[in-house]
Amino acid sequence: MKLVLTEFVTLDGVSQGPGSPSEDTSGGFTRGGWLVPYMDELFVRRAAEQLHQADGLLLGRRTYEAFARDWPRITDPDDPFTELMNSLPKYVVSATLAECAWQPATVLRTLEGVAELKEGPGRELQVHGSARLGRALLDAGLVDVVRLVVAPTVIGDGRRLFDGPGEAAGLRLAKHEATPSGLLLLEYETVGVAPVGEYEGVSALV
């Protein structure tokens, strides 16, 4: 299976609490819900198309517990995500989680377990949210695709995507699209270590 990391992010790199002011208030964060005003029809359609490519969800403990709290409560019959989110196999990377209320679910204690899971059959193993886990997977070279949804807003506070020290990772832009509300839908393929260079003038670049 391909491991696909999907993250919502602001222009200043914040990935915390995109869906609701109460979604994730850790660290005293009070500015959640920043993605919702920009969720237009094209975004919903593309997100649903991508979720239908998943044969499993890979989540960190914090995101798993938040999803387990919220997704079973969504009863809108026209919601394009609920049935799949609730029925897809969930794999939770955690050293502390003792039991999984939101089924079907399996706890993976190490990233080696993720690597073994990737070797099995299937289309996409999708990480949604779980930014800390996403960074660890990227550092370990386990991510194949990074999908970013960039909201046209600056929040000024909150946890930032890929924040802190880590391994350098090279990415190649594979797809890009803008929605009517101004969301950027970006898809990157990982290509190993990030390249570097030294600028010596325009003539050296052509």
Shape label: globular
Give the class from helix and strand content and strand pairing.
alpha/beta
CATH topology: Dihydrofolate Reductase, subunit A
Named CATH architecture? 3-Layer(aba) Sandwich
The largest pleated sheet is described as:
8 strands, mixed
What would CATH call the class?
Alpha Beta
SS element count, helices: 5
As a percent range, the share of helical residues equals 10-25%
CATH superfamily: Dihydrofolate Reductase, subunit A
Number of spatially distinct domains: 1
What is the average per-residue confidence, as pLDDT, rounded to a whole number? 94
The percent range for strand residues is: 15-25%
Tell how many strands the DSSP assignment holds. Answer: 8
Secondary-structure element pattern, one letter each: EHEHHEEHEHEEE
Low-pLDDT residue spans: none
Give the helices and strands, then pairings.
Blueprint: E1 2-10, H1 41-51, E2 54-60, H2 61-70, H3 82-87, E3 90-93, E4 105-108, H4 111-118, E5 124-128, H5 131-139, E6 145-151, E7 171-178, E8 184-190
Parallel strand pairs: 1-5, 1-6, 2-3, 2-5, 3-4
Antiparallel strand pairs: 6-8, 7-8
